[in-house]
Design brief:
By secondary structure, the chain is mainly α. Helix content is 80%, strand content 0%. The longest helix is centred in the middle third of the chain and has 31 residues, at 9-39. The radius of gyration is 20 Å and the shape is rod-shaped. It starts with a helix and ends with a helix. The relative contact order is 0.07.
């Protein structure tokens, strides 16, 4: 007997991705903020400010 996942891999993948993207959203936002900090128009001052606060 085949599982529902084996019969409909697209649906299983869509469900997995939906859950994955929901879990990874906060980290993706932090990553985007760091990208802007390191390569944005305020760099390198924004990077120096980041390390000066530590």
């Amino acid at each position: 007997m085949r599982s529902a996942t084996a019969e409909r891999p697209e649906g299983a993948l869509a469900a997995y991705e939906r859950d994955l993207f929901a879990r990874s959203a906060p980290v993706a936002q932090l990553s985007a903020a760091n990208l802007a900090r390191f390569f944005g128009p305020d760099a390198p001052t924004s990077v120096v400010d980041l390390f000066a606060r530590r």
